[in-house]
Amino acid sequence: xxxxxxxxxGSVCNPPEHLLHRRLFLQGLAGAGATSLMSWNGLFxxxxxxxxxxxxxxxxxxxxxxxxxxxFETWDPKPGRPTGGxxxxxxxxxxxxxxxxxxxxxxxxxxxxxxxxxMKTEASEHLQGIELLNRGSGPRPPFIRPTLGSVLAxxxxxxxxxxxxxxxxxxxxxxxxxxxxxxxxxAGWLGAxxxxxxxxxxxxxxxxxxxADTTTTDHEEREALRRFLTKKYGNERQSAAASSQxxxxxxxxxxMSCAPLFDLDRLPARDKAKYGPGAFGMxxxxxxxxxxxxxxxxxxxxxxxxxxxxxxxxxxxxxxxxLDRVIFHLVTDLEERGLLDKTLIVMMGEFGRTPWLNASRxxxxxxxxxxxxxxxxxxxxxxxVGATDANGIEVTENPFNExxxxxxxxxxxxxxxxxxxxxxxxxxxxxVEEKAPPIREILA
Length: 444
What we know:
The chain has a single domain (51-204, 263-442), classed as 3-Layer(aba) Sandwich (Alkaline Phosphatase, subunit A), CATH 3.40.720.10. 34% of the residues lie in helices and 12% in strands. It has 13 helices and 14 strands. An 8-stranded mixed β-sheet has the order 6-5-7-1-8-11-4-12, sandwiched between helices. It has a two-stranded antiparallel ribbon with strand order 2-3. Strands 9-10 form a two-stranded antiparallel ribbon. A hairpin with a 6-residue loop joins strand 2 (89-91) and strand 3. Helix 5 (126-135) packs across helix 7 and helix 8 runs antiparallel to helix 9 (240-258). The longest helix has 25 residues, at 312-336.
């Protein structure tokens, strides 16, 4: 279901270009002929629309650091303090701002990033934290709030695009709480058509080729019959499930046409070499490639490797250099391609890690004071907001929670954070509840 929105004021047609704003255009499709225009590839076959859509397209890449990295070994080091650990801090491009010595590449581009060092959230267990930081608000059973990816798929995506509006690059089907989250309802009340297409492991989409003895004509005729019968059933039974099934089949049809985009073997060897051989690096490269080709939202996850209850320092010594390398190349590559100003990059986990070590030399879950980073579309580069005390135990300046974060993401992408969802006979829900303000200091 689509959020309520007020019609724009002062919209004018401007020949000869006829600048086509996506939402204005779709609002006008209710008239006669809309169905034929919205047929597969019909809309994007119009050169004027395709070019305008390409110029206006915004994107978001979420680097989901599942398991939750330590702020002490990344963005908010406390060298020399009892909580600081063995690693030094190093200066960055921003005078007076230091990050962990494990992140030298990010230190060199910190003038293109924005850091929030004062996140303060409530959930202290993985599943609850993952739900909270992916949905932007706590649960209100039995209603299921759509995830960030689903909302952005609806708001930034194009109905006729063969490229999925929400791609989830997932190298690790294992993992306790994250596995439970992945099995859940991502799109909530928006509908299954805004759920993710999940790809992982082999960096290719399997099992989407047409059966060899089925001709193109046969395939199209069967699909037309299936679509007709499903639509008839949905109209007669008023079934949302039938509509979702149709959307799923259309998604498969689009995947068949864009499958080569997911094949990393087609990318230059030098690109693969600089992102590194690991699944997280390869999926981040794939995210860049998908955004270059029009994907609105790509989520890159990495299983649960950051959950460092044991040997925290050794784990971060292994993991942070890869993260450092990936962020550096993702930001610089998008900038070189002229896409950074149109692509929001969000880098976070579900909470932070404790200032103290446990008996196994690990850091446990800590939502009270943690850090994240953002860059790109709508974000003011070279800004650090918020602070923690000398030992990183408490937020001392500008505490922010998940609602502030979601308001920031939506605002950066030009989406109204406070629009109400149109849910007939149900309680009122908003994209961001309680009119929580965005983190204005990092907005461009």
